[in-house]
Design brief:
single chain; about 210 residues; alpha/beta; Rossmann fold; Arc Repressor Mutant, subunit A; 2 domains; five-stranded parallel β-sheet; 11 helices
Length: about 210
């Protein structure tokens, strides 16, 4: 096991962040070089401290986790990244793998699992438990798992969104209420990390999720 691992924690929930600092410092094998509450502070501290690893939440403010990951991977490629988040749907995990993230731990995990994951990542292990991610690593398309990622209703709504239909038009075509359409739409956007229909369309085409014949 690697000792004296130098880490930085980026988490906007102060109580959780400080608790992690105390726990990791007491582990005896991990040095917490700093803790921050937003992505901008994280990038500044990474540049100053040159840590072995950063632990970050995806929903940190100012510069969010996804953007911070891209910047760290570009400017500080030797720094490993362990995401700690409640956002653990398959598409998000797949996106993290694509960005070169080294591991993921749920905020609901035991603290011992966190320290174990840190050491695994430092030893160049990819820490993702989800089977889909293992398949993604092997190069399989997300389209092969669409039934596992989206419900049948979500798939139908997603296709109509990509066809340019409004909520009202989709509700009439699928014989469901506009409120139900919006519910599925928000779930789809969350799973694909899309902000609007154009983002969704790009994602669908990139991963060949749907056929538009």
């Amino acid at each position: 096991m690697v000792s004296n691992v130098k880490v930085i924690i980026a988490e906007d929930q102060t109580i959780l962040r400080k608790a992690l600092v105390v726990y990791l410092q007491r582990s005896g094998s991990i040095e917490v070089a700093g803790d921050v509450s937003n992505g901008k502070q994280l990038l500044t501290l990474v540049k100053k401290q040159s840590p072995d690893l950063t632990i970050l939440d995806l929903n940190i403010p100012v510069i969010d986790g996804f953007e911070a990951i891209d910047i760290i991977k570009t400017k500080f490629p030797k720094v490993k990244i362990l995401v700690m988040s409640n956002v653990d749907d398959p598409l998000t995990l797949s996106k993290l793998i694509s960005k070169g993230v080294n591991g993921f731990v749920s905020k609901g995990a035991e603290l011992a699992e966190l320290t174990d994951s840190i050491h695994k990542v430092i030893n160049n292990e990819l820490v993702f438990e989800n089977k889909l991610i293992a398949q993604h690593k092997e190069g399989k398309l997300l389209s092969e798992k669409i039934d596992e990622l989206f419900s049948d209703k979500e798939t139908r709504v997603m296709k109509e969104i990509c066809n340019g239909l409004t909520n009202i038009q989709i509700s009439k075509r699928l014989s469901i209420s506009a409120a139900t359409v919006n519910y599925h739409k928000q779930r789809i956007y969350r799973k694909t990390q899309s902000k609007h229909a154009v983002d969704l369309l790009r994602f669908v085409h990139k991963h060949q999720l749907l056929s538009f014949d």
